[in-house]
Amino acid sequence: MNLLKTNLLNKLGKNLKDLDNYLENPFIVFEKKNFLNDHEYLNLVNEIYLLNDFEKFSEGVGDKKKRSINGNNLEGLKNGIFKEFCNFFLSKEFYNWFAKTHLPFFKKTKKYKIYIKKPRNLSFRLIKKICRIIKIPVSFFHTEIEYSSIKKGGFIPPHTDSKNKRLSFVYYLLKSSNELSEIQKKSLGTVFWKPISSNKKPLNRFDCRLLEGNEKKEFYKNYEPFYIANYDQNKFVGFIKSDNTWHTVEPFDFNYDRRAIVINVFEA
Fold it and tell me: 11 in helix, strand or coil?
Protein backbone atom coordinates (compact mmCIF):
# COMPACT_ATOMS: atom_id res chain seq x y z
CA MET A 1 0.00 0.00 0.00
CA ASN A 2 1.48 3.37 -1.01
CA LEU A 3 2.02 6.24 1.44
CA LEU A 4 -0.85 8.41 0.15
CA LYS A 5 -3.32 5.53 0.44
CA THR A 6 -2.16 4.75 3.99
CA ASN A 7 -2.39 8.39 5.06
CA LEU A 8 -5.88 8.87 3.65
CA LEU A 9 -7.21 5.71 5.28
CA ASN A 10 -5.81 6.89 8.59
CA LYS A 11 -7.48 10.29 8.17
CA LEU A 12 -10.85 8.69 7.42
CA GLY A 13 -10.60 6.71 10.66
CA LYS A 14 -12.85 3.83 11.63
CA ASN A 15 -15.98 5.71 12.68
CA LEU A 16 -17.86 8.58 11.05
CA LYS A 17 -18.42 10.10 14.48
CA ASP A 18 -14.67 10.60 14.84
CA LEU A 19 -14.49 12.99 11.87
CA ASP A 20 -14.28 16.77 12.34
CA ASN A 21 -18.02 17.34 12.19
CA TYR A 22 -20.90 14.89 12.57
CA LEU A 23 -24.65 15.59 12.57
CA GLU A 24 -27.43 13.03 12.95
CA ASN A 25 -30.68 14.95 12.71
CA PRO A 26 -32.62 14.96 10.39
CA PHE A 27 -30.02 12.79 8.61
CA ILE A 28 -26.32 12.04 8.96
CA VAL A 29 -23.89 14.64 7.60
CA PHE A 30 -20.15 14.55 8.23
CA GLU A 31 -17.07 16.60 7.34
CA LYS A 32 -13.32 16.06 7.26
CA LYS A 33 -10.90 19.00 7.18
CA ASN A 34 -7.25 19.03 6.00
CA PHE A 35 -7.73 15.79 4.10
CA LEU A 36 -4.48 16.12 2.13
CA ASN A 37 -1.25 17.72 3.26
CA ASP A 38 -0.63 21.24 1.96
CA HIS A 39 1.72 20.21 -0.84
CA GLU A 40 -0.56 17.44 -2.13
CA TYR A 41 -3.59 19.68 -1.95
CA LEU A 42 -1.98 22.54 -3.88
CA ASN A 43 -0.81 20.16 -6.61
CA LEU A 44 -4.29 18.60 -6.84
CA VAL A 45 -5.98 22.00 -7.14
CA ASN A 46 -3.54 23.11 -9.85
CA GLU A 47 -4.14 19.89 -11.83
CA ILE A 48 -7.93 20.08 -11.61
CA TYR A 49 -8.16 23.73 -12.64
CA LEU A 50 -6.24 22.87 -15.83
CA LEU A 51 -8.87 20.27 -16.80
CA ASN A 52 -11.68 21.44 -19.05
CA ASP A 53 -12.59 18.23 -20.90
CA PHE A 54 -16.07 18.01 -19.40
CA GLU A 55 -18.41 15.36 -20.78
CA LYS A 56 -21.76 16.65 -19.54
CA PHE A 57 -23.32 20.09 -19.48
CA SER A 58 -26.60 20.18 -17.57
CA GLU A 59 -27.95 23.28 -19.26
CA GLY A 60 -31.19 24.58 -17.75
CA VAL A 61 -31.04 22.42 -14.61
CA GLY A 62 -28.07 23.98 -12.89
CA ASP A 63 -25.45 24.40 -15.61
CA LYS A 64 -22.95 22.13 -13.87
CA LYS A 65 -20.15 20.67 -15.98
CA LYS A 66 -18.50 17.41 -15.01
CA ARG A 67 -16.40 14.47 -16.12
CA SER A 68 -16.36 10.97 -14.58
CA ILE A 69 -13.44 8.69 -13.82
CA ASN A 70 -13.68 4.99 -12.99
CA GLY A 71 -11.52 1.91 -13.32
CA ASN A 72 -12.17 1.75 -17.06
CA ASN A 73 -10.69 5.14 -17.95
CA LEU A 74 -8.32 5.74 -15.02
CA GLU A 75 -5.20 4.94 -17.06
CA GLY A 76 -6.06 7.78 -19.44
CA LEU A 77 -5.21 10.31 -16.71
CA LYS A 78 -1.79 11.92 -16.67
CA ASN A 79 0.46 10.83 -13.84
CA GLY A 80 0.11 13.16 -10.86
CA ILE A 81 -1.66 13.66 -7.57
CA PHE A 82 -5.15 13.47 -9.11
CA LYS A 83 -4.41 10.02 -10.54
CA GLU A 84 -3.06 8.90 -7.15
CA PHE A 85 -6.16 10.38 -5.50
CA CYS A 86 -8.42 8.43 -7.87
CA ASN A 87 -6.41 5.25 -7.29
CA PHE A 88 -7.12 5.54 -3.58
CA PHE A 89 -10.87 5.98 -3.97
CA LEU A 90 -11.03 3.15 -6.53
CA SER A 91 -9.11 0.81 -4.24
CA LYS A 92 -10.44 -2.21 -2.38
CA GLU A 93 -9.15 -0.64 0.84
CA PHE A 94 -11.46 2.36 0.42
CA TYR A 95 -14.37 0.07 -0.48
CA ASN A 96 -13.76 -1.89 2.74
CA TRP A 97 -13.90 1.38 4.72
CA PHE A 98 -17.15 2.29 2.95
CA ALA A 99 -18.62 -1.16 3.65
CA LYS A 100 -17.95 -0.81 7.38
CA THR A 101 -19.12 2.78 7.79
CA HIS A 102 -21.99 3.07 5.28
CA LEU A 103 -23.51 -0.28 4.34
CA PRO A 104 -25.04 -0.94 7.80
CA PHE A 105 -27.45 1.93 7.05
CA PHE A 106 -28.79 0.15 3.93
CA LYS A 107 -30.93 -2.75 5.07
CA LYS A 108 -31.87 -4.13 1.64
CA THR A 109 -28.32 -4.90 0.53
CA LYS A 110 -28.09 -8.49 -0.71
CA LYS A 111 -26.28 -11.33 1.02
CA TYR A 112 -23.15 -11.38 -1.15
CA LYS A 113 -21.22 -8.17 -1.84
CA ILE A 114 -18.62 -7.80 -4.57
CA TYR A 115 -16.57 -4.72 -5.44
CA ILE A 116 -16.03 -4.13 -9.16
CA LYS A 117 -13.25 -1.76 -10.23
CA LYS A 118 -14.14 -1.73 -13.94
CA PRO A 119 -17.96 -1.46 -14.20
CA ARG A 120 -17.96 -0.89 -17.98
CA ASN A 121 -16.37 -4.23 -18.84
CA LEU A 122 -18.47 -6.62 -20.94
CA SER A 123 -17.50 -9.54 -18.69
CA PHE A 124 -18.97 -7.80 -15.63
CA ARG A 125 -22.21 -7.00 -17.44
CA LEU A 126 -22.54 -10.64 -18.46
CA ILE A 127 -21.88 -11.86 -14.90
CA LYS A 128 -24.46 -9.42 -13.53
CA LYS A 129 -27.04 -10.62 -16.05
CA ILE A 130 -26.38 -14.28 -15.22
CA CYS A 131 -26.68 -13.59 -11.47
CA ARG A 132 -30.00 -11.89 -12.08
CA ILE A 133 -31.33 -14.75 -14.21
CA ILE A 134 -30.41 -17.52 -11.78
CA LYS A 135 -31.31 -15.31 -8.79
CA ILE A 136 -28.00 -15.24 -6.93
CA PRO A 137 -28.42 -12.71 -4.04
CA VAL A 138 -25.38 -10.60 -4.87
CA SER A 139 -24.85 -6.83 -4.83
CA PHE A 140 -22.12 -5.34 -6.99
CA PHE A 141 -20.52 -2.05 -5.98
CA HIS A 142 -18.43 0.35 -8.03
CA THR A 143 -16.95 3.81 -7.55
CA GLU A 144 -17.25 6.82 -9.83
CA ILE A 145 -15.13 9.94 -9.31
CA GLU A 146 -16.12 13.15 -11.02
CA TYR A 147 -14.53 16.56 -11.23
CA SER A 148 -16.96 19.39 -11.73
CA SER A 149 -17.24 23.10 -12.45
CA ILE A 150 -20.03 25.54 -11.58
CA LYS A 151 -19.65 29.19 -12.56
CA LYS A 152 -21.51 32.43 -11.80
CA GLY A 153 -25.29 31.86 -11.85
CA GLY A 154 -24.88 28.08 -11.78
CA PHE A 155 -26.46 25.82 -9.18
CA ILE A 156 -27.56 22.28 -8.35
CA PRO A 157 -31.34 21.95 -7.72
CA PRO A 158 -32.84 20.05 -4.75
CA HIS A 159 -32.36 16.28 -4.92
CA THR A 160 -31.75 13.26 -2.67
CA ASP A 161 -29.59 11.38 -5.25
CA SER A 162 -30.33 8.43 -7.51
CA LYS A 163 -31.63 5.18 -6.03
CA ASN A 164 -28.40 3.22 -6.64
CA LYS A 165 -26.06 5.64 -4.87
CA ARG A 166 -24.68 4.49 -1.52
CA LEU A 167 -21.98 7.08 -0.86
CA SER A 168 -21.42 10.71 -1.78
CA PHE A 169 -18.34 12.76 -0.86
CA VAL A 170 -17.84 16.30 -2.14
CA TYR A 171 -14.24 17.49 -1.87
CA TYR A 172 -13.80 21.26 -2.18
CA LEU A 173 -10.96 22.70 -4.29
CA LEU A 174 -10.57 26.27 -3.10
CA LYS A 175 -7.25 27.61 -4.40
CA SER A 176 -6.47 29.78 -1.37
CA SER A 177 -8.27 30.35 1.90
CA ASN A 178 -7.86 34.10 1.37
CA GLU A 179 -9.32 34.39 -2.14
CA LEU A 180 -12.95 34.33 -0.96
CA SER A 181 -14.77 36.00 1.91
CA GLU A 182 -16.57 33.89 4.50
CA ILE A 183 -19.88 34.99 2.96
CA GLN A 184 -18.72 33.80 -0.48
CA LYS A 185 -17.53 30.47 0.94
CA LYS A 186 -20.99 29.98 2.43
CA SER A 187 -22.62 30.89 -0.90
CA LEU A 188 -20.58 28.17 -2.65
CA GLY A 189 -21.24 25.52 -0.02
CA THR A 190 -23.51 22.49 -0.01
CA VAL A 191 -26.89 23.24 1.59
CA PHE A 192 -28.75 20.49 3.46
CA TRP A 193 -32.50 20.90 3.93
CA LYS A 194 -35.25 19.86 6.35
CA PRO A 195 -39.04 20.39 6.30
CA ILE A 196 -40.33 23.57 7.91
CA SER A 197 -42.33 23.04 11.10
CA SER A 198 -45.67 23.58 9.35
CA ASN A 199 -44.90 21.02 6.65
CA LYS A 200 -47.15 18.06 7.51
CA LYS A 201 -46.36 16.08 4.35
CA PRO A 202 -42.59 16.02 3.77
CA LEU A 203 -41.40 14.98 0.34
CA ASN A 204 -39.70 11.63 0.96
CA ARG A 205 -38.15 10.22 -2.17
CA PHE A 206 -35.29 7.71 -2.15
CA ASP A 207 -34.79 7.94 -5.91
CA CYS A 208 -34.63 11.62 -6.77
CA ARG A 209 -32.45 13.44 -9.24
CA LEU A 210 -32.92 17.18 -9.83
CA LEU A 211 -36.25 18.85 -9.07
CA GLU A 212 -37.61 21.20 -11.71
CA GLY A 213 -40.58 23.51 -12.34
CA ASN A 214 -43.48 23.65 -9.86
CA GLU A 215 -42.08 20.78 -7.82
CA LYS A 216 -38.92 22.79 -7.21
CA LYS A 217 -40.93 25.90 -6.27
CA GLU A 218 -43.02 23.91 -3.80
CA PHE A 219 -39.88 22.47 -2.26
CA TYR A 220 -38.48 25.91 -1.44
CA LYS A 221 -41.81 26.90 0.13
CA ASN A 222 -41.85 23.89 2.43
CA TYR A 223 -38.17 23.34 3.32
CA GLU A 224 -35.45 25.29 5.09
CA PRO A 225 -31.67 24.81 5.49
CA PHE A 226 -30.52 23.00 8.60
CA TYR A 227 -26.80 22.98 7.73
CA ILE A 228 -24.51 24.60 5.16
CA ALA A 229 -21.13 22.99 4.53
CA ASN A 230 -19.04 26.01 3.56
CA TYR A 231 -16.76 25.82 0.54
CA ASP A 232 -13.61 25.61 2.68
CA GLN A 233 -10.14 24.71 1.53
CA ASN A 234 -9.11 21.04 1.65
CA LYS A 235 -12.38 19.76 3.14
CA PHE A 236 -14.86 17.09 2.13
CA VAL A 237 -18.47 16.76 3.18
CA GLY A 238 -20.55 13.60 2.95
CA PHE A 239 -23.89 12.21 4.07
CA ILE A 240 -25.72 8.91 4.48
CA LYS A 241 -28.27 8.75 1.68
CA SER A 242 -31.92 8.18 2.54
CA ASP A 243 -35.33 9.30 1.29
CA ASN A 244 -34.97 12.72 2.94
CA THR A 245 -31.35 13.70 2.18
CA TRP A 246 -32.28 16.87 0.31
CA HIS A 247 -29.30 19.01 -0.68
CA THR A 248 -28.44 21.77 -3.14
CA VAL A 249 -25.83 24.20 -4.33
CA GLU A 250 -27.56 27.57 -4.54
CA PRO A 251 -26.93 30.13 -7.35
CA PHE A 252 -24.10 32.58 -6.65
CA ASP A 253 -23.74 36.03 -8.18
CA PHE A 254 -19.97 36.59 -8.33
CA ASN A 255 -17.31 35.47 -10.81
CA TYR A 256 -15.82 32.21 -9.62
CA ASP A 257 -15.19 28.72 -10.96
CA ARG A 258 -16.42 26.42 -8.21
CA ARG A 259 -14.34 23.29 -8.69
CA ALA A 260 -14.93 20.13 -6.69
CA ILE A 261 -14.31 16.39 -6.79
CA VAL A 262 -17.27 14.10 -6.04
CA ILE A 263 -16.73 10.48 -5.00
CA ASN A 264 -19.75 8.22 -5.46
CA VAL A 265 -20.22 4.54 -4.69
CA PHE A 266 -23.10 2.81 -6.47
CA GLU A 267 -24.80 -0.52 -5.89
CA ALA A 268 -25.65 -2.30 -9.13
Answer: helix
